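$ fold --in a.seq
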Amino acid sequence: MTEGEKDPKEVAVLLLKATMLPDGEVFPRFDQPKYTPADYTRMACHILFRCQRCGTCCTTGDPIRLRPEDAAQLAKHLKIPLNRALKKYTIPDPKKPGVLDFKHILPCKFYDRLAGGCKIYAARPWSCRIFPFLGVYGSSDQVVVNPSCPGSVETMEILTRAMEEVQREQEGYSPSTEEIRRSKEHLRRVLDEL
């Protein structure tokens, strides 16, 4: 394991604990988002994921959706006014009122073929940040892995093996509610760091 990589078994332990109790039992306040076990699995996958820079996400994503905060971040990153960024780079999503899409896709206008990467990586939209572990957080009950992304396939294999190993090693172990809450909070911070 190289510096910066996470130990799959440590991530599996976090995931195992985080999925032992529903969020409602751990976060009784109404202002806390409620996530499903699949959501926590996605969060764990993001910890382990290593982009292999194949470009699949940048060359096949259609549409590439933007939230209002994504458009604002793009404008700030490009050092242009928001209205100019909206006019130059976005269109309204015809299927989702209030949602924006990038104008230029297939490949994404910000994909650099020569460098094999995104020119706006630090300001990439949420839809790009959560790729390739797709789903609607808080409602989806399964993790959808994009099979054309070699990094996602590898991540799921690594996490699955680590989960199986941890489950065998910790059979009969019952963490406290506090340990479960801390594991959930740790994984939730992953979303903020994407």
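$ fold --in b.seq
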Amino acid sequence: MRVFLTLARAASLGRAGQVLKMDPATVGRRIARLEARLGQRLFQRSHQGYALTEDGLRLLPHVEAAQAHLRAAETPSDSGSGLSGQIRLGAPDGCANYLLPQVIANICAEHPALEVQIVALPRVFNLSRREADMAIGVSAPQAGRLSVQKITEYHLHFAAARDYLDRHDPITRVADLRGHQLVGYIPDMIFDSELDYLARLDLPAAQMTSNSVPVQLNLLRQGGGLGVVHDFALPHAPELQRVLVKAFSLTRAFYLIRHADDRRNTRLGQFADALRRGMCAQVRQLEGAVLQAELPAQAISENP
């Protein structure tokens, strides 16, 4: 069962072997033996790796539940309510890079026996295939056997490097952006309509694009132009300055997405509560730091 669960998450004999400290061929033999014993094909083999079949997907939650019960039984009675074991969390790369590190570090400091894996991918996670134990999304899924909870709202604005702004005329309205280079997402790689920030603006297509939020941020830091940036990412890029703050502002939200079968999993529930509290506090802190940093400049402009 342990080999099955590891291969389901790793999707590769080689990666599963590394986790299990087994030869990949041994992993393959164990899975073949399990399939023969159950009389079911649990994995579909292809050049892309190992993917769970329908039989494998049906078996997976039972194995995960057995693992959770075993971990609970192995936990010493004097360990209090501390979390332990491994939890894999999927998240968009902007959230994973600029918001989650401090949140997860704080949770793990409080629960030393807990291992958290952050999988940062610019796409939607497939929880039905157990790519992660839970995922953070920028919209609430409307299909699937999922449990969805809103975590917190966050804000986005146009921003550019200060030296870029110094080399150009002041930008006072959205129409002024037509004379500037824009940074944004690769259009056909926008995996959620909530990320199509420029869709409703009458502006030329972005000249510099990436499916990665950190790449977009670094393009802006190098003076590449203007782009829409998460306010919570700005403290990580002090070279950037928000523009058109009153003329253009977006509000989006993060959602915690879990498989419906996990709603009664106490361990995952405790982690989810800690994650929500931490993310709410971190967004408030980082966005507040941006506002505080802009106060002196605003005071000067209002009182010349």
